[in-house]
């Protein structure tokens, strides 16, 4: 009878969790009451009142919790083995810019992985600041330039865009150009650096390709419970691109802005939290386990992510599916890890899946860490109206429209960078 009761209770819990996973809340009245974990109180109960305590005590504690419970730690150090320059062209966009295509090669035993990086830099300008971030379909997709190399990595099928059997074709060239206003960025005096995120780790629940197998022990076929999921692997890749950028004499490595949209916005935030060489971070529509507070359970939730994209995060995250209140951290703490560097968070009015209010509240809470550095966090207490950006050391806007990255977003990114970096000479 006892065994029957245990089985029955277990079944009830399973049914209840399953029902919660199938529900999506878009009603503020249905947001549960929640209490956020303390940002400025250590595990031992010590109050964090200055930057010294933050950097020595609380920041490492929080970073470790995110590694163990959400993103997963990188098991080994893997460095660039070789840099192959595929092309250097000095006259792009009618003499406005240079274009460089390089391959970062990683080797271990009999394994080899190549990550193709595309750089556009303003011409005849020394030490330029740059935006660096991944693209979703290959470097060739961000512009219709026929000389950009087609990716040979695995890409999710989309026959309407010319992606068949997980391989791109010429038809897919330039299909994402609306998200990449390259000429406008260059004319503002900034460079743009991108790579296809699938070069580092294909976006599928596989773990047999990409960078993950480089760290496997004999007989291991997937990461351990607290080891890196795909987001952590992609963030690792951004840091390796940063390694390369530090060697480029025409780039100001002290002014590298890491950015990302959607799942790549989650990636940019984790990369900036882990790697303090990134001077600024921009998170565009990153939502759950990006900028938005998990405890609000609004739109996308941890349960939805772990059931739909189980490879994105470490196995330990499954413990918090439909149990967000048990998390030892929340996303305001991730944003706090980026302090005192400038941070810009964005939302969109029709992107309720990413929980715009949760993104704003998270950014607002993170300001407590910025205050330790005597930096202004968000300059407003209430969520601004659509298309009304606010910019302290933390900036935020909610744009009218859908889940996307647009020319409007890019204009604000450039404005925010101009606010915090020394003036960059715009190119006429």
UniProtKB/TrEMBL annotation:
<keyword id="KW-0378">Hydrolase</keyword>
<keyword id="KW-0732">Signal</keyword>
<dbReference type="InterPro" id="IPR054579">
    <property type="entry name" value="GCE-like_dom"/>
</dbReference>
<dbReference type="InterPro" id="IPR029058">
    <property type="entry name" value="AB_hydrolase_fold"/>
</dbReference>
<keyword id="KW-0719">Serine esterase</keyword>
<protein>
    <recommendedName>
        <fullName>4-O-methyl-glucuronoyl methylesterase-like domain-containing protein</fullName>
    </recommendedName>
</protein>
<dbReference type="GO" id="GO:0052689">
    <property type="term" value="F:carboxylic ester hydrolase activity"/>
</dbReference>
<dbReference type="Pfam" id="PF22244">
    <property type="entry name" value="GCE_fung"/>
</dbReference>
<feature type="domain" description="4-O-methyl-glucuronoyl methylesterase-like">
    <location>
        <begin position="225"/>
        <end position="371"/>
    </location>
</feature>
């Amino acid at each position: 009878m006892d065994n029957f009761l245990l089985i029955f209770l277990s079944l009830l819990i399973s049914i209840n969790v399953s029902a919660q996973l199938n529900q999506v809340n878009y009603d503020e009245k249905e947001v549960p009451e929640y209490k956020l974990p303390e940002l400025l109180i250590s595990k031992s109960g010590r109050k964090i009142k200055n930057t010294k305590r933050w950097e020595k005590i609380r920041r490492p504690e929080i970073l470790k919790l995110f590694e163990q419970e959400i993103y997963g730690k990188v098991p080994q150090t893997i460095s660039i083995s070789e840099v192959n320059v595929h092309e250097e062209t000095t006259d792009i966009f009618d003499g406005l810019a240079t274009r460089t295509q390089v391959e970062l090669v990683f080797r271990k035993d009999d394994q080899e992985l190549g990550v193709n990086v595309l750089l556009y830099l303003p011409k005849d300008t020394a030490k330029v600041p740059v935006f660096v971030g991944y693209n979703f379909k290959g470097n060739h997709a961000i512009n219709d330039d026929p000389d950009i190399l087609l990716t040979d990595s695995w890409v999710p099928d989309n026959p309407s865009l010319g992606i068949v059997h997980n391989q791109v074709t010429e038809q897919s060239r330039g299909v994402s150009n609306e998200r990449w206003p390259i000429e406008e960025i260059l004319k503002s005096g900034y460079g743009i650096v991108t790579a296809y995120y699938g070069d580092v780790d294909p976006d599928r629940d596989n773990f047999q390709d990409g960078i993950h197998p480089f760290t496997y022990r004999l007989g291991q076929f997937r990461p351990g419970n607290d080891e890196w999921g795909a987001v952590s692997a992609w963030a690792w890749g951004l840091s390796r691109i940063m390694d390369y950028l530090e060697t480029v004499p025409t780039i100001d490595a002290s002014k590298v802005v890491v950015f990302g949209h959607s799942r790549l916005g989650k990636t940019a935030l984790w990369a900036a939290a882990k790697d303090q060489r990134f001077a600024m971070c921009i998170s565009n529509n990153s939502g759950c386990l990006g900028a938005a507070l998990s405890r609000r359970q609004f739109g996308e939730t941890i349960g939805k992510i772990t059931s739909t994209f189980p490879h994105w995060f470490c196995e330990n995250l499954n413990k918090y599916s439909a149990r967000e209140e048990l998390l030892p951290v929340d996303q305001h703490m991730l944003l706090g890890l980026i302090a005192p560097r400038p941070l810009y968070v964005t939302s969109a009015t029709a992107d309720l899946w990413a929980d715009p209010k949760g993104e704003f509240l998270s950014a607002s809470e993170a300001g407590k860490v910025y205050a330790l550095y005597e930096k202004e966090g968000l300059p407003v207490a209430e969520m601004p109206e659509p298309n009304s950006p606010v910019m302290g050391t933390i900036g935020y806007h909610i744009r009218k429209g859908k889940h996307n990255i647009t020319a409007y977003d890019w204009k604000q990114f450039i404005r925010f960078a101009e606010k915090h970096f020394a003036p960059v000479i715009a190119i006429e």
